[in-house]
Amino acid sequence: MTAQLVSDSSSARESSESSASSRGSLATVSDNASLMKLMKSYQADQQVEYLHLQAEIEVLFQQLQALKQQKLKQTDRHEKN
């Protein structure tokens, strides 16, 4: 997914640059605005992916803690017997 996003942003940037070059030095504000919009949406995609990964890490950490507690309880039971 990340590679596709990078590829998409590179293609869009190249397209924007080539259209600006073909018009000479008259690159319009809309070119800059579309580039900024693309960059913001890419950042938003990265933020969403980061939040999902962070949530997944939290779930895995909680599962690990639960497994450690189970193991400690089992160890305690065996030591008492």
Tally of strands: 0
Beta fraction: under 5%
Structural class: mainly alpha
Distance between the termini: 53 Å
Supply Rg.
25 Å
Structural account:
The chain has 81 residues and is an all-alpha fold. The protein has one domain (2-80). It is built from 2 helices and no strands. It has helices at 2-22, 29-80. The longest helix has 52 residues, at 29-80. The N and C termini lie far apart (53 Å). The model is unreliable at 19-23 (pLDDT under 50).
Give the tags.
2 helices, 81 residues, mainly alpha
How would you concisely characterize the structure shown here?
With 81 residues, this protein is an all-alpha fold.
Topology at a glance:
Blueprint: H1 2-22, H2 29-80
Helix pairs in contact: 1-2
